[in-house]
Specification:
alpha/beta; seven-stranded parallel sheet; 15% strand
């Protein structure tokens, strides 16, 4: 009798570290991963304690870790603590990111550029650098880096953000190829305009225009992105690596 393939979305027995878990896509990802059975390491500079408490309150397993993703020392401390307690890091979701209201080529400052690149590009680099060693020792692991559709198409007023997110795409592809034969899977998700605190003070008129320009007729939600991250971190993502997937309601298909 032939085995029947099944869709396996469970993450039981896995330990998954999620950055930016204090709000937005990071929080939704942590919640979804926790509901799928993983032990969640909710990491951020604020809000992550509430996220972890919500997961444990719902019957899941989670713990909060203070983490500045731009700090190599913070990364090492977090990874050492997780390994000491749980023995492995099976999955890493690099979600933490920032934007700037003044990110035009001519108006962006050197300080602003450095800050955006530090969080949005250096952060995922440090995360992979810190976690891939233990993953290799354990025989493999999965990483999902969150970039943006700004890495795929030209957009106004996001010069440093686009550069950083484009770097995430290229870096992830390189790491995916280099470590594929050793059991590491690395993929990138590029969200479109998503209903998160990063939208800031965007006007209702602009939101309406963006919604109208999206083929699916609505903005994205954090859960739209989090569900795909959880899928890629699980067994069904075993043969997927080096890919960049837009979750944008069809925006970049136009």
């Amino acid at each position: 009798m032939l085995d029947t393939p099944v869709l396996d979305t469970r993450l039981d027995g896995l330990t998954v570290l999620v950055t930016g878990s204090g709000s937005g896509i990071g929080r939704a990802t942590a919640q979804i991963v926790g509901a799928a059975g993983a032990t969640v390491i909710a990491a951020d500079v604020k809000g992550h304690s509430d996220t972890a408490a919500g997961i444990t309150g719902a019957g899941g397993r989670a713990e909060a870790h203070d983490l500045d993703v731009t700090s190599a020392l913070d990364w090492q401390s977090t990874v050492d603590s997780v390994l000491s307690t749980h023995g492995a890091i099976d999955g890493l979701a690099n979600v933490a990111g920032i934007v700037s209201d003044t990110d035009d080529l001519l108006t962006q400052t050197e300080e602003g550029w450095d800050r955006l690149v530090a969080v949005d590009l250096k952060g995922p680099w440090l995360g992979m650098k810190s976690c891939i060693g233990p993953m290799l020792q354990a025989g493999g692991g999965k990483i999902v880096n969150v970039a943006s559709t700004a890495a795929l198409i030209g957009m106004p007023n996001v010069v440093a953000y686009s550069a950083a997110k484009g770097g995430v795409v290229a870096m992830s592809r390189q790491v995916a190829v280099e470590y594929a034969a050793r059991g590491i899977r690395v993929n990138v998700i590029c969200p479109g305009v998503t209903q998160t605190p990063m939208l800031g003070d965007i006007t209702e008129e602009l939101l309406a225009a963006v919604t109208a320009a999206t083929p699916s007729g609505r903005l994205g939600t954090p859960a739209d992105v989090g569900r795909l991250i959880a899928f890629l971190l699980g067994p069904s993502g075993d043969f997927i690596t080096g890919q960049t997937i837009a979750v944008d309601g069809g925006w970049t298909a136009q």
